[in-house]
Amino acid sequence: MTWTIANPARQVSLFSLLAVTSLGYFVDGYDLIIFSVVRKASIIDLGLASTEEQIKNIGIGLENWQSAGLLLGGIIWGILGDKLGRIKILYGSIAIYSIANFANGFLSPEWGNVYTWYAALRLLSGFGLAGELGAGITLASEAMATNKRGYGSMAIAGIGLLGFVTAAWLGSLNVFKWNTLFIIGGVAGFVLLLFRVGIYESSVYLLQRRASVARGSFFSLFTNRTRFRKFMLCILVGLPMFFVIGLPIKFASNMARAFGIEGVSVPTALITFYLALALGDVLCIYLSQKLKSRKKPLLLFNILNLIIVLAFIFLQPANANQYHYIYCPLLGLSVGYWAMLTTNAAEQFGTNLRATVAVSVPNFVRASFIPIALLFTSIETTLGTIYSAAIVGVACSLVGIISTVFTEETFNKNLDYAE
């Protein structure tokens, strides 16, 4: 089914949309990564663990709770985005993750059952954080000309990813306590809600809403073979990203110890990684526009990722500086296709399922940390950290490459249709 948009009742200011959506992803990125920055300090301060092994295991558990929230939120916010509109889920998601992170800043041993509270707040935060990026890129994709959509995604991701860098930078200063950094993220989210005023709903969505088609039917992605195949490929293309983020970066100090290196800092690893990832996102979108293809840049980046993962494992960094300033940026550059991943997902499906897919796909990719971590920890005791990382990392890279090959090309695709 297709339709034509003529004289929409409400016009979206493209500049305002991109500016506010980019700022939104900036805050989203800060709040998403801040737990990884303060994980060790908060676990020790709250009396949850004392040894490095205990800290690692509890940290992985809490990361899994946040990932579970992202997975659940990715489904629910996506459905609501197609049923109620893209703007409403932006407001709702920001409010929830801001409340969760603000409350996390006041967590203390006096609460009792500290781990349960911490896990619940990470779950709630993940749930809220799930709605931001997919909804923003869906809005931008529907507002821009077909041959310029990539530039909108580039602006959102290029600016937004600096939120990750800011969180890591503030953590590296050792000026603010871990709970203060959580509170900063919560307050920034509340302020962001004020900036959302004046941003209007996608005219493509508003017109489609008048049509008698089912909207936001998540399970329809699984009842039709073609839709299921496209949906799974969208997710699997991004699998290498959350091996890299989940193990060599978020748990950089643990990986470094396996290499026999001391002095590796998670905040520093996050800063250099996300700066390179932001650069990679800009480069990936630029290549997409020049090559007039979504698939080709994704394939190039996933092949690059395989090469760099192999180098990281078998040509190991010799010291903390090499880890921080050579391998972390190279790993970040190799998975610098986050905006392209979400744009590709948004372009694969009709307007009545677009938000469902564009919101759920990046969060399914984020939640892939759960099986990745489970596989890694299950074989680590037998094979050791390095060889376990090699097996999991190479497997993720190969899955990403194969999935990209079979993904449908969507560059210049008309998005004015329903499933």
UniProtKB/TrEMBL annotation:
Keyword hit for Membrane: yes
Membrane topology summary: Multi-pass membrane protein
Localization in the cell: Membrane
Pfam family, one: MFS_1
Domain Major facilitator superfamily (MFS) profile, residue spans: 17-419
Keywords: Membrane, Transmembrane, Transmembrane helix
Domain of life: Bacteria
GO cellular component: plasma membrane
Matching InterPro entries: MFS (IPR011701), MFS_dom (IPR020846), MFS_trans_sf (IPR036259)
MF (Gene Ontology): carboxylic acid transmembrane transporter activity
Positions of transmembrane segments: 12-38, 58-80, 89-107, 119-139, 151-170, 182-207, 228-249, 269-287, 299-318, 324-343, 355-379, 385-406
Protein's UniProt name: MFS transporter
